[in-house]
Write a structure and sequence with these properties.
Elements lengths: L1 H9 L3 H33 L2 H9 L1 H23 L3 H6 L1
Helix pairs in contact: 2-4, 3-4
Length: about 90
């Protein structure tokens, strides 16, 4: 109930509601593409020194940072690929 009330008051205004609707539609359109390509990006990122150092320090932080990087970068990549007509049909 608390989460519902917080979301209702934070995103209750019309301008914020329209912006959030656009973001939700963009994310929902890219979820399948993220699902298809996330393994390749995770395998690539796990081999980098940055993620290894974070994992040595704190494995929980590693998972949070890795997931954020993967979801954000793949959402942007899928959004860009959807601009190409050939890829738009498949993604």
């Amino acid at each position: 109930i608390n989460v519902f009330i917080i979301i209702k008051y934070l995103f209750g205004s019309r301008t914020i509601k329209d912006k959030m609707t656009k973001w939700i539609i963009t994310i929902s359109n890219s979820v399948f593409g993220v699902y298809l390509f996330h393994v390749f990006l995770i395998e690539f990122l796990v081999k980098t020194d940055f993620i290894k150092k974070i994992g040595d320090f704190n494995s929980f932080a590693e998972v949070i940072i890795l997931d954020t990087i993967v979801f954000t970068s793949l959402t942007i990549a899928i959004w860009l690929l959807r601009k190409i007509p050939l890829f738009k049909k498949f993604l």
